[in-house]
């Protein structure tokens, strides 16, 4: 056993000792293990046998050793190994304990002795080994020749484990330190104990073909493995080959001078012995160096003898007759062939060509009538709510190779086209319309592939959704209202201008009879006019500009909301939220339940008080702020005016039927004077009886529409 | 007991949709395989109504699939095939890595192919469904049929496409199903009609294949599409051939089998054979009759049937019937510079016979010297040797004739002539607000006179009308009122002057004098009858409409505005096209005049 391995073992043993300590603490458990171990031992021994059989070389053996080492680490495995040992070397352990003293001696002697002494040591140890009992001896003899080494491992391990175990059983009451010491001693003993087993001679029977030279059996191992030791290997008998004494240069020199055969002395690196080459050897070496055949007797150019030729000889070359099977067809083959032929005939087997044909045929696409002839039942499996991909739009005239000239881009469009190079999706066309004079001049379209690819991407990657397309025309969104023509009378044109005011006309109003008009404005005058003619009847000079002139009092208006009060009960009935920012004017429908608000943010808001406190309809008829609204007292008309250039007349009929909502129809936009200081019309008033409309304008006129 | 709280997105839109990542996880497929199966099965992402909810609250935009679609995929047997393929590919890789090339070759030989027949049936339960979705299929197959061998495309795919496309063209020829053709700068557009379904496809011009950069075009994806489309087209072809009583597969030439493929290196040889194949008629099933002409269609007067519409339908049927036999009995000869494939296809579709120079290409049926040739298609300015017995026309004549459904007069299409514009037959004529070039108008309406003949044609007038309208739109209502009244006044004035003129014409000068005297003598002048402004009503209506427009509900206001804007834009586009055309025509006319003058001057100089 190589020393490095013993080193390894030592390590493992030390690990093991710790475990055994543990074991000692619970010995009863160990007992149990022992019992089970006895039951299992057969298996284990067979395992070890297997190991031996399989192991072909030293290196692999290492692996095995490591494995067993690993298994030692775990408790169960340790137990198993213990059990393993139990069967083989029951007797051995006794011997080991007996011979421990002797071995320790021999160990010492070995360390000192050289190669020659080794023999004596061996002779000493041999009888021991032979004594060790028939069991182990016979066991090793049965094994194949390479096995002894591995068997040695086993035996190596087994005894000491056994002993440990025994010790744990017997000396359980000893304290830990003493047990460890004892263990160490035991281990040493065991190591010594190894030797006799190692140096057992297999070839004792006398079969020693290479007795003349000692051969190192260490094998193909690196030399440095033995660098630390006194020996360099083992001979065929398993004895150590001692390292030859180191000769220094002076020795070499002296020998060179003295020995006549020094020049043909060679040192065998494996054994360290010096060999004197014979004359024959030298000849051989020189032949090899010259590149000739080493054997001098060998004739390279001897004549060729054709022993085995096509010629039939008179007498057979070989002494024995031909075998029967050499001239009889094989029955087995015949059967085989027959089977093949039958299979081919029946079509079970196919020739290689047939197979290739078939493969080709299978690869060809076969088309058939997939949809059948007529109506079949609907397939249940289909995509749910399938949305077919939209088709590409058909080509327009612009895509033609020879388009009408109007489709070609002119200079201005071309400039735009070029400027949109970075953002091609904004261009008018996806392609540049070009004109080719003849068909043969038309080139391939460079983006064709790309376009098809994009289409493919669209087909499988673009999310699809059903989008309702509006088929209505925009005009249909406009509410259908009765034509203004049917809702006459209403003022359609300007008929009179009341000139006279020099500043803005802030306010104007008809008298209840509708005969006169009163107006007041920024020129600090109030004027009374005749409504029918536009003649100023009277001018009343006031000191300050007039804000409002009216024949009747005004309604209360806040800026955001309209509060409706019950004046009898004196409580707030309702607050109307207009949804407008600044209210400017308010008009009550003569019937009372409807209300019209004007706001500076261009809205007229119709409230149906019976409906809700929210607007019934918001009219955005003006482009500027609405300054005034007015209901006609008799006709279903109302008018609004503001800062834009229009006075809008609307039809607003209220029905007595509660279910019918008021009908609002814008009727006419009457032209107001152009705005002055962004003001156009400040107030509108209806004639009490006639559909006449009076507008107080910013240019200092009053205008009457009829 | 506390009821279990419902998890968010476990029902409703959140449960209906699935991101692509989730789908991949569910199907246990790689993205590559998923893409493939999506293409084959026709699964596409859906646009959710509420994206936020459909993405289970996740931000960004994710590709969302219907959960049901993914579950539908889950039952697909092909998924297992794809997984098997993966194993097979691993085997091949391993064999290659371990340098077991024999094994590798065996694996490659036995590479399993995926059968997708059932998918075709599943996606298109009826034949008509398949026909309806044939546009992309045909375009891609025709494109792939021109491909050389590329890295990402299986070697036999382009060959298969070539075979199938030629077969389809044969079916179109046999059924005389072609309706419209168009030469675009992108390629040739064809429209055929089978079972009432119109199928439109594009065939690219020559040399359509150009190497593409990797991020521009991914041939692998296109190839997967083609894989499905070839199957589909094969089945459609089979069905078409059978319904036409033709033998399928047709024995066209030996040129389409992959065995001889290796010998044919020359691209031109391929093209030539393909066209040659078009020129032979396919075998009919023995014992079958000619495809009988459709019987006269009886048109029933339905209750809601508009008699005018019925009349139109009748006319259409008649036209189509004419179209089918348009080239019947006519012999065409193609010069070698003419692109043969489209022309052979079109002429054969309408019953003509075609041939070409047999020295250049295979498959010629008659020689150029054949006296019975009616038309020779040429695309060059002049020819040395010309036969008097035939017309030499440019290829556009064939296309325009097909679209016009009659043989057009050839005078504009003669050899070397400057061709009239080639118009698209696909422009939707029903839609309003579509610009119609004068040529198209002339085609539709024989009474229409194009601008060239009469400078003060209706077109210009219209244009001016449009201009006027534009102005009206721009200016406020007041202006258009004024303009209208002005127009009206002018008209009135014109009327009066014309009356005067009439009087002048009628009366002798003496009588005129007498009349004048009378006028002077009599103080009472004839009263002018009050003529109501005919535009008055229009103006009023317009004003009323404008007011009503303001009452559009708030909900619809934006829609209304955008619709109006669209209308305006289309109007403007039409106006622009008209204007451009007018300018162009004027320019051409000027040039013509200048040339004429020049010629005159030259002639004068020559005489003097």
Describe the structure.
The complex is a heterodimer of chains A (706) and B (608). Chain A has 706 residues and is an alpha+beta fold. Among the domains of chain A are: 3-234, no CATH class; 246-290, no CATH class; 392-437, no CATH class; 488-495 and 549-705, YVTN repeat-like/Quinoprotein amine dehydrogenase (Methylamine Dehydrogenase, Chain H, 7 Propeller), CATH 2.130.10. Chain A contains 17 helices and 22 strands. Chain A has helices at 3-25, 27-54, 58-73, 75-88, 90-98, 100-112, 115-131, 134-142, 148-170, 176-198, 249-258, 279-290, 324-327, 331-346, 352-363, 411-419, 448-461, and strands spanning 231-234, 240-242, 265-267, 274-276, 494-499, 505-510, 516-521, 525-530, 536-541, 561-566, 571-577, 583-588, 594-599, 604-608, 617-619, 626-631, 637-642, 646-653, 663-671, 681-686, 693-697, 701-705. In chain A, 27% of the residues are buried. Chain B is α/β, with parallel strands linked by helices and 608 residues long. Among the domains of chain B are: 13-109, Multidrug-efflux Transporter Regulator, Chain: A, Domain 2 (Orthogonal Bundle), CATH 1.10.1660; 117-209 and 216-278, no CATH class; 309-426, Rossmann fold (3-Layer(aba) Sandwich); 471-499 and 535-548, no CATH class. Chain B has helices at residues 13-16, 20-27, 31-41, 51-54, 67-74, 77-97, 101-109, 117-123, 127-132, 134-144, 157-175, 219-243, 258-261, 267-278, 307-324, 340-349, 395-404, 438-444, 458-474, 477-506, 509-521, 536-549, 554-607; strands spanning 17-19, 64-66, 178-183, 187-194, 197-204, 331-334, 353-356, 375-377, 391-393. Chain B has a four-stranded parallel beta sheet with strand order 7-6-8-9. In chain B, strands 3-4-5 form a three-stranded antiparallel beta sheet. In chain B, strand 4 (187-194) and strand 5 (197-204) form a beta hairpin.
